[in-house]
Design brief:
By secondary structure, the protein is of the alpha/beta class. The protein has 3 domains: 196 residues, Up-down Bundle (Four Helix Bundle (Hemerythrin (Met), subunit A)); 94 residues, Beta Barrel (Elongation Factor Tu (Ef-tu), domain 3); 123 residues, Nucleotide-binding domain of ferredoxin-NADP reductase (FNR) module (Rossmann fold). The strands form 2 sheets. Strands 4-3-6-1-2-5 form a 6-stranded antiparallel beta sheet. Strands 9-8-7-10-11 form a 5-stranded parallel beta sheet, with helices on both faces. Helix 3 crosses helix 5. The longest helix is centred in the N-terminal third of the chain and has 30 residues. Keywords: Membrane, Transmembrane, Transmembrane helix. It holds the Pfam family NAD_binding_1. One of its GO terms (molecular function) is oxidoreductase activity. InterPro entries: FAD-bd_8, FAD-bd_FR_type, Fe3_Rdtase_TM_dom, FNR_nucleotide-bd, MRET, OxRdtase_FAD/NAD-bd, Riboflavin_synthase-like_b-brl.
């Protein structure tokens, strides 16, 4: 609920409903109380709402650093983007079907002509073209045949650009309320121009790979140095990394999201990367000296809705990286993220691992905890303790239910921990987590 109360969603809801509200007087004039006119009005309403959702989905693709904070984070934006696109797709199909049924009482041939007029009526055929393209690029997101390949999915999503243009070609000649469609069209087209045309040149920072530290068998820390302007960031944020190493077996020129593991005070940008796919596998052996582009930063992981509370950190797998950045920030700046001016603030990190062999970064985190009284680090090994339990938390951190909670790790771990906190009476507004599931 916390994420949905962000100010960005109020603006989105207004822009989504405004075309429908402006068209209401015109729709009421068309309605005479009969079945046919009722269907026509309903078809008009579904078409207007579908077009608004489609343009807002395109607008949300802009991915400007900092803008995501107004929507509760980039993963939340992608969720709304997907829902808006899917809603537009369903409503467009409903729009066409209901229009056909509205013409049936007059004549079946009239219904056919309404949906499939002569080719001179190009706005209608533009609408069919937009729907056809939506079927093509939205189909893989339904995952009927498994999870789509990330980069192929992104390439296929380029069809959203001609889809939007065809939809606008359908709307402008047929719809009223011209000015609101101009506003929405400018937002959508501007977002797509930035995302696909300008941001690769104006929105990225050029870095050089200066080191690759192997942490365990399938995890490395890639270290990067800016070649020009340095990207400012906060602990716990993430970036899109685009490696340009020509020797990579996969992923050259492809962007993928990774969490920053370094402190904002560090001159070197450090990113922990686990072998989870073709691109991340290739990055295990990226060549020092090669170029990598960074876009970001994104996220607000250490957002403080209750600044008077201490923090509870729970990390699993590669989800430890935002906490490594937070701990390093503590070491470098001697303050917890979001805790400037609070000398009594502290955090307790529980490192959830399979066993001590896989506990990468743990030695460094324990060392930071030993030298800073405001950070406590407790390892929890599944092989020895089983799943994390409320009893284990209370034993090592008796006031855990009173703290503000930050979690990052596998989805199953997050779900398990949330159940513990719900049973312990922790309000959901004090539970923070971030999952990279953008498909």
């Amino acid at each position: 609920m916390r994420a949905w109360l962000k100010p960005g969603y109020g603006l989105l809801l207004l822009l989504c409903l405004l075309p429908l509200l402006l068209a209401l007087p015109r729709m009421l004039q068309l309605w005479d109380g009969g079945a046919a006119s009722s269907l026509r009005v309903f078809a008009l309403a579904t078409g207007i709402l579908a077009m608004a959702l489609l343009l807002l989905a395109a607008t949300l693709s802009i991915r400007l650093p900092g803008l995501d904070r107004f929507f509760g984070g980039l993963p939340q934006i992608w969720l709304v983007h997907r829902l808006a696109g899917f809603g537009a797709f369903i409503l467009i199909m409903a729009h066409a079907v209901v229009l056909g049924f509205a013409a049936v009482p007059a004549d079946l041939s009239a219904a056919i002509i309404t949906l499939f007029p002569p080719f001179e009526n190009w706005p209608v055929w533009s609408g069919w073209g937009a729907l056809l393209l939506m079927v093509v690029f939205l189909g893989p997101t339904f995952q009927f045949f498994g999870r789509p390949h990330y980069q192929r999915w992104k390439t296929l999503h380029l069809l959203a650009i001609p889809t939007t243009l065809l939809a606008l070609a359908h709307v402008f000649p047929l719809a009223g309320e011209f000015w609101i469609w101009v506003v929405l069209a400018v937002l959508a087209i501007g977002a797509m121009v930035w995302r696909k045309g300008l941001s690769p040149h104006l929105g990225r920072y050029e870095y050089e790979v200066v080191g690759v530290e192997k942490l365990v068998r399938d995890v490395v820390e890639v270290q990067l140095k800016p070649r020009g302007k340095t990207m400012p960031y906060e602990a716990g944020q993430f970036v899109y990394l685009t490696p340009m190493d020509p020797n990579l077996s996969a992923g050259k020129g492809e962007e993928h999201p990774y969490t920053i593991a370094s402190s904002p005070e560090d001159a070197i940008l450090r990113i922990g990367i686990k072998d989870l796919g073709d691109a991340s596998h290739a990055l295990q052996t990226v060549t020092p000296g090669t170029t990598a582009y960074i876009e970001g930063p994104y996220g607000d992981f250490y957002e403080r809705l209750y600044p008077e509370r201490d923090q509870l950190w729970l990390a699993g797998g590669i989800g430890v990286t935002p906490f490594v950045g937070g701990a390093r920030h503590l070491r470098e700046a001697d303050e917890l993220p979001g805790q400037a001016g609070r000398e009594d603030a502290n955090a307790h990190l529980f490192y959830l691992g399979r066993d001590h062999v896989r506990a990468y970064y743990l030695d460094e985190l324990m060392d930071i905890g030993e030298h800073h009284e405001r950070l406590t680090v407790t390892p929890h090994y599944f092989r020895d303790e089983g799943p994390m339990s409320e009893d284990f938390l209370r034993r090592h951190c008796p006031d855990f239910a009173e703290r503000e909670i930050y979690m990052c790790g596998p989805p199953a771990m997050i779900d398990h921990l949330k159940q513990i906190f719900v049973r312990a009476g922790v309000p959901s507004s004090r539970i923070h987590s971030e999952v990279f599931d953008f498909l």
